[in-house]
């Protein structure tokens, strides 16, 4: 380790600490040579060691920068150990430097892991995101966190508040809305914003898929453990699939429009997803989002196996139309159907990797470049507003949605504490009934 680089890195980290203390804020960008020679180790902590968290750690290492995983946190020891052995096998003990005393489990594990690191990767179920993000920023860490960033309006208000703190401290925050880091989306939407198809006046966004895993109840589990393991099916943890998955496509609509909708109305329910292990979430939502210029975007998400499916985005402008798809497509046509632009996706980088290349690229140079949390919070809020509309059957306005006081998180996080939604005597969970359910 070259002392000069070590000092640069420490100065960069110290800059944020000074900002917290209310001292005159230095601009990290002005600090020369932070991590320049790549000889100064960046310490990372992983919070939430499941599929995506393990993937994010892989991608962090694949940036090629000098990183060390120094701490891991998960609610469950088996999850943590599984992730640890995969990472150890691939990257070795030098890089995966997580001895027993830096493996943390349980609900408070995140606090201890965050302390050990310069950069925190957060990939728990989204209900915990506001608390974990707040702790990371309070501890002056740079952050990669997965989408969605909350499951209710209370969580969103917290993320918006913490996003401002992160900006004031000049801490980089990248959020895993990876279409924002994917060439076909970037290039196509740049052309839309340059006027290629006129003003956007309508659109359709879809996440119609076959569904996701179910983790069945095991003997001896408390209700809390069962819900935590089978998290997709409980709103306090997941937000329902309109929030958990469809936020990607809804975020594309907000990106294309350059704003957030003022109201939502919609319909949804449970046709196929009706088992005891299917918790409380719906299996389909259809929402109309209206923007302040009157543009209406049709949003549709569905978990029906064995039917026609699509995950993509289309928009109509006053001079043409467009179609985009995560499989590297981006096409623009004029009003007569002549092709104006087609993205050649052959050499597109993997956007999951690009997110990490960009984040760690900025960090090694001592740059402050990424403030993704505010948009991620507002796009997550858009999806939550859609859920409020389908659950209640009412027209929901942005301001009333954002100010909703209906809190989903349990009052106490403990393996023996009770979540707010529990099964009835028949073993089935209550779910929203439009016309009866209150969301505001
Ligand atoms: N950007 C994308 O395309 C993409 C893809 C997949 C998942 N995700 C997101 O990543 C997140 C995780 O999804 P996943 O598929 O990895 O789920 P997963 O179930 O595989 O992993 C979640 C992990 O978090 C742990 N966990 C739960 N509560 C915790 C807590 N309070 N503290 C610490 N750890 C806790 C779980 O035990 C589990 O190991 C979700 O927000 C999901 O939406 C994003």
Structural commentary:
This protein is an alpha/beta fold. It is 35% helix and 20% strand. Strands 14-13-12-11-7-10-9-8-15 form a 9-stranded mixed β-sheet. It has a 6-stranded parallel β-sheet with strand order 3-2-1-4-5-6, sandwiched between helices. Helix 3 links the parallel strand 2 and strand 3. It binds nicotinamide-adenine-dinucleotide (NAD). Nicotinamide-adenine-dinucleotide is lined by residues 47-53, 73-76, 79, 107, 109-110, 123-126, 128, 146-147, 176, 178, 228, 244.
**Largest sheet geometry:** 9 strands, mixed
Q: Tell me roughly what share of residues is in helical segments.
A: 25-40%
Q: From the alpha-carbon coordinates, what is the Rg to the nearest angstrom?
A: 22 Å
What is the string of SSEs from the N terminus onward?
A: HEHEHEHEHEHEHEHHHEEEEEEEHHEH
What structural category characterises the helix and strand content? Answer: alpha/beta
Total DSSP helices: 13
Mean pLDDT, all residues:
92
Small-molecule components bound? nicotinamide-adenine-dinucleotide
Uncertain segments of ≥5 residues (pLDDT<50)? 1-38
Fraction in beta strands: 15-25%
Intertermini distance? 55 Å
Number of strands: 15
Tell me the overall shape. globular
Strands in their spatial order, largest beta sheet: 14-13-12-11-7-10-9-8-15
């Amino acid at each position: 380790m070259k002392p000069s680089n070590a000092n640069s890195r420490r100065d960069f980290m110290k800059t944020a600490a000074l900002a917290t203390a209310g001292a005159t804020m230095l601009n990290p960008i002005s600090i020369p040579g932070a991590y320049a020679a790549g000889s100064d180790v960046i310490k990372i902590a992983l919070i939430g060691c499941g599929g995506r968290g393990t993937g994010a750690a892989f991608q962090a290492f694949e940036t090629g920068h000098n990183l060390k995983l120094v701490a891991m946190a998960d609610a469950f020891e088996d999850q943590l150990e599984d992730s640890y052995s995969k990472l150890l096998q691939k990257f070795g003990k030098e890089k995966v430097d997580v001895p027993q005393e830096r493996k943390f489990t349980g609900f408070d594990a995140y606090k201890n892991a965050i302390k050990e690191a310069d950069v925190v990767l957060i990939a728990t179920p989204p209900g915990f995101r506001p608390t974990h993000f707040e702790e990371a920023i309070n501890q002056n860490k740079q952050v990669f966190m997965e989408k969605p960033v909350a499951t209710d309006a209370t969580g969103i208000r917290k993320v918006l508040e913490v996003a401002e703190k992160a900006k004031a401290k000049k801490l980089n925050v990248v959020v895993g809305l990876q279409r924002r880091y994917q060439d076909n989306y970037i290039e196509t939407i740049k052309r839309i914003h340059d006027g290629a198809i006129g003003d956007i006046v309508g659109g359709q966004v879809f996440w119609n898929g076959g569904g996701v895993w179910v983790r069945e109840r095991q003997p001896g589990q408390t209700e809390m453990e069962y819900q935590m393991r089978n998290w997709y099916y409980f709103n306090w943890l997941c937000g329902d699939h309109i929030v958990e998955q469809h936020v990607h496509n809804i975020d594309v609509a907000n990106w294309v429009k350059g704003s957030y909708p003022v109201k939502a109305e919609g319909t949804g329910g449970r046709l196929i997803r009706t088992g005891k292990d299917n918790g409380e979430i719906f299996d389909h939502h259809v929402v109309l989002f209206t923007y302040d210029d009157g543009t209406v975007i049709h949003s549709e998400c569905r978990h029906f196996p064995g039917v026609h499916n699509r995950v993509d985005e289309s928009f109509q402008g006053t001079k043409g139309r467009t179609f985009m798809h995560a499989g590297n497509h981006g096409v623009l046509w004029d009003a007569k159907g002549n092709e104006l632009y087609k993205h050649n996706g052959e050499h597109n980088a993997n956007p999951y990797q690009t997110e990490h290349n960009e984040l760690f690229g900025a960090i090694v140079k001592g740059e402050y470049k990424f403030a993704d949390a505010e948009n991620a919070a507002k796009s997550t809020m858009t999806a939550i507003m859609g859920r409020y509309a389908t659950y209640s059957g009412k027209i929901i306005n942005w301001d009333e949605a954002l100010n909703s006081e209906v809190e989903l998180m349990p009052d106490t996080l403990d393996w023996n504490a009770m979540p707010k939604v529990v099964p009835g005597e028949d073993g089935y969970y209550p779910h929203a009934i439009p016309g009866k359910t209150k969301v505001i």
